[in-house]
Amino acid sequence: ENSFTVAIDGPAAAGKGTIGRAVAAHFGFAHLDTGLLYRAVGRRVLAGEEAVAAARALEPSDMAEPEALRTAAIAGAASEVAVIPEVRAALVEFQRAFARRAGGAVLDGRDIGTVICPEAEVKLFVTASAEVRAERRCRELQAAGHATDLATVLDEVRARDARDAGRSTAPMRAAEDAVLLDTSEMSVEAAVAAAIGVVSAAR
Ligand code: C5P
């Protein structure tokens, strides 16, 4: 059976996850939030493991409770382990196998269209201004019961963006053939509809 891959990249809290989940549900594709892999490695490192060994030891159970991985501390640790080439290399095959699965797959992350799936049938680069993204992330964190404020989240978002875009291995950037989607002034519904339109046109 043929595979069909949708690659969604972009900075933190731009809407990749929401769009990825909605596109996957619409077309009946599987969805992988690849940030969870790096977060799971980050959590192991915070618990005392060495980063490369942690990446090689990763198991599905590490990603079993995604909500537990969505803290600011784990996000920071994730973006620190994500600069290590051996950590990234240890996660490549799992992601590529997921992308190749029959019936279609959506992967969201930072390097899906550029490194993991350069042959993806659809590539989207989802962005929004740092201020809008920080507001969204702040609301999510507060709704999940984490005590934080907008200035702190904006600082964290900017630090993570700089590390993700500035690293030498698989830096966050739009693939040349990616469709850019700036969600700063779009509702969730409008952003999802735009993404579904791009995928529909490619099928
Ligand atoms: O997407 P999310 O915010 O969960 O990702 C956490 C961190 O994992 C990112 O800041 C980035 O450093 C790293 N990451 C990556 N490549 C991916 C997905 C996430 O480097 N494909």
UniProtKB/TrEMBL annotation:
Catalytic activity of the protein: CMP + ATP = CDP + ADP; dCMP + ATP = dCDP + ADP
Span of the signal peptide: none
Pfam families: Cytidylate_kin
Recorded GO MF terms: ATP binding; dCMP kinase activity
Annotated compartments: Cytoplasm
Key words, A-Z: ATP-binding, Cytoplasm, Kinase, Nucleotide-binding, Transferase
Cross-referenced SUPFAM superfamilies: P-loop containing nucleoside triphosphate hydrolases
GO BP term (any one): pyrimidine nucleotide metabolic process
InterPro entries given in the database record: Cytidylate_kin, Cytidylate_kinase_dom, P-loop_NTPase
Major site of localization recorded for this protein: cytoplasm
UniProt keyword annotation of DNA repair present: no
Domain Cytidylate kinase: 6-197
Binding site for ATP: 10-18
Domain of life: Bacteria
GO (cellular component) term, any one: cytoplasm
Enzyme class: transferase
EC identifiers of the protein: 2.7.4.25
Family label: Belongs to the cytidylate kinase family. Type 1 subfamily.
The name this protein goes by in its record: Cytidylate kinase
Organism, scientific name: Roseicyclus marinus
